């Protein structure tokens, strides 16, 4: 027996003055209403209603029980309203976890702008290199993965971008700008070190030439297994490297980095927001996802247009 539903039915029988009237209000059959009340009386061990052919009235036990039932149902409705307010109101604590790279270059820069729009939202951020903890412990987990990623989790794609080759203006001023993929062989290249990737080779794709792909041998002057360190090195003029566009975009837009060999790209990646559930998404979570998505896409779009403008006057 659904005890709360039985209480609700019992209250309706009293308020409507009978089983048939309560059945109409509740959109139930009279037999169903009768069954709920009978089961409730069996559960409490007392007769709650006095039934006659003309009317239904409360017994003494029924009067005492109804007073408590009204309080219980009122508290349940209040609890529901409180929960809905948390879902509908853009306020409260937003718990987010992300790897150091995403936390530094995507999450942190978005906080000030978002809080100007929604000052009643505060952040509780956990930066975790190993992705420790369950997705259910957070409102959002930010992660970057290949576009064919099929993890066993609820994940909303924020943006799908590609890797792009970039260098600092200082490096290009000193060493020149490569005009073709083959010219990379004569430049200082920085590579991300990964056990599944070959060293000394860059795989490039031209989306404007039917996806033409070429494999270019390069001279890696430095191999690094941490993308943030790789980014720092290229910003300081150490050479040319590939970076995910969503991470490189702010530096391309500010002029601290310059994209080279556009429109050639490297691997395609998608930034995901993993969520604990598809249902009852709090308004603060939805608002931040919308803000982060729009902010990231605008930054990437500006960087893509800027690169084309610089290389194709």
From TrEMBL:
Any one biological process term the GO annotation gives: DNA-templated transcription
Keywords: DNA-binding, Transcription, Transcription regulation
Tree of life domain: Bacteria
GO terms of molecular function: DNA-binding transcription factor activity; sequence-specific DNA binding
Stored Pfam families: HTH_1, LysR_substrate
Start and end residues of each HTH lysR-type domain: 1-59
CDD domains per record: PBP2_CrgA_like (cd08422)
Family: Belongs to the LysR transcriptional regulatory family.
Name of the protein in its database record: LysR family transcriptional regulator
Organism of provenance: Diaphorobacter ruginosibacter
Species lineage: Bacteria, Pseudomonadati, Pseudomonadota, Betaproteobacteria, Burkholderiales
């Amino acid at each position: 027996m659904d005890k709360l539903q039985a209480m609700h039915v019992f209250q309706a029988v009293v308020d409507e003055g009978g089983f048939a009237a309560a059945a109409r209000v509740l959109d139930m059959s009279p037999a169903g209403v009768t069954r709920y009340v009978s089961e409730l009386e069996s559960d409490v061990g007392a007769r709650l209603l006095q039934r006659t052919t003309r009317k239904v009235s409360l017994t003494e036990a029924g009067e005492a029980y109804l007073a408590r039932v009204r309080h219980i149902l009122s508290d349940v409705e209040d609890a529901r309203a409180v929960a809905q307010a948390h879902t509908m109101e853009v306020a409260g604590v937003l718990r987010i976890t992300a790897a150091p790279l995403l936390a530094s270059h995507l999450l942190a820069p978005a906080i000030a702008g978002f809080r100007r729009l929604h000052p009643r939202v505060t952040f509780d951020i956990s930066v975790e290199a190993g992705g420790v903890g369950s997705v259910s412990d957070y409102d959002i987990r930010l992660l970057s993965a290949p576009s064919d990623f099929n993890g066993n989790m609820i994940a909303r794609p924020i943006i799908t971008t590609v890797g792009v080759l970039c260098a600092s203006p200082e490096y290009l001023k000193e060493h020149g700008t490569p005009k073709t993929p083959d010219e990379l062989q004569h430049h200082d290249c920085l590579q991300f070190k990964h056990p599944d990737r070959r060293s000394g080779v860059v795989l490039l794709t031209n989306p404007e030439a039917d996806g033409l792909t070429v494999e270019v041998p390069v001279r890696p002057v430095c191999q690094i297994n941490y993308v943030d360190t790789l980014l720092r090195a290229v910003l300081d003029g150490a050479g040319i490297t590939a970076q995910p566009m969503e991470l490189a975009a702010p530096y391309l837009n500010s002029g601290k980095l310059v994209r080279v060999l556009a429109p050639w790209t490297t691997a395609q990646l998608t930034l995901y927001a993993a969520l604990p559930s598809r249902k009852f998404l709090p308004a603060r979570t939805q608002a931040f996802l919308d803000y982060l998505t729009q902010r990231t896409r605008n930054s990437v779009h500006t960087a893509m247009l800027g690169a084309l403008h610089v290389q194709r006057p």
